[in-house]
Design brief:
185 residues, 6 helices, binds flavin mononucleotide, Rossmann fold, 8 strands, alpha/beta, two-stranded antiparallel ribbon
């Protein structure tokens, strides 16, 4: 069975991103792929202080394992100041370079308080993932005015957005299943 890692792209306590990531996991399981959630809230920031790139960092290595091992990644990305949260870039900078996203299928969900639903944040992240040779899943979903279209209790309450999200889940699960298995290094 293929595996998907759903990244909640912020360390903000109580974030919508984490609630959405947790909502997505059983939807992926229902499509026959195993799904785990990794929250940037749990990134061991203390180990990165001082810019320890290239050093032995056991906490960060353990944290990033699920993402590296997954057959596919779903990024749930809130918009902060017209971009994605800084913690997400820091996390990516602590992944193995240059191969962490090589041929890795990645799907994107943007969410924001504003009217564009994290479009800017997602497009900037797509640029990074494309640079790192990921396979970008083309169907993206943007949750505008996120608190009025999603809640932990009810899930997605907007019919059109719900259709788009379920279509992305189904399509991305198929996409991951069709990508050839990773070759051992
Ligand atoms: C530091 C910060 C910057 C933000 N900047 C934006 C922004 O540029 N555009 C926007 O629509 N919402 C912005 N927001 C609001 C978020 O979109 C809102 O908190 C939303 O719930 C998604 O973030 P969350 O996953 O942290 O809950 C910002 C929130 C924070 C904490």
């Amino acid at each position: 069975m293929k595996s998907i890692c759903i990244i909640s792209g912020t360390d903000r306590p109580g974030s919508m991103a984490l609630k959405i990531a947790n909502y997505l996991a059983p939807l992926y399981e229902a499509q026959g792929v195993s799904a785990s959630v990794v929250s940037m809230e749990d990134f061991p920031l203390e180990e990165a202080i001082g810019g320890k790139y290239g050093k032995k960092l056991p906490l960060i290595e353990a944290f990033r394992e699920k993402v590296i091992d997954a057959d596919g990644i779903v990024m749930v990305i809130p918009e902060y100041n017209g971009s994605f949260p800084g913690i997400l870039k820091l996390f990516i900078d602590y992944l193995p370079f240059p191969d962490a996203f090589q041929k890795k299928p990645i799907a994107f969900i943007g969410e924001a308080a504003g009217a564009f639903g994290g479009l800017r944040a997602v497009e900037q992240m797509q640029m990074i993932c494309a640079y790192r040779n990921a396979h970008l899943y083309p169907e993206r979903v943007f949750l505008q005015r996120v608190k009025s279209v999603f809640s932990e209790e009810e899930g997605i309450t907007d019919e059109t957005l719900s259709e788009l999200l379920h279509s992305q889940v189904k399509g991305f699960a198929q996409f991951v299943n069709r990508i050839e298995d990773k070759q051992p290094a």
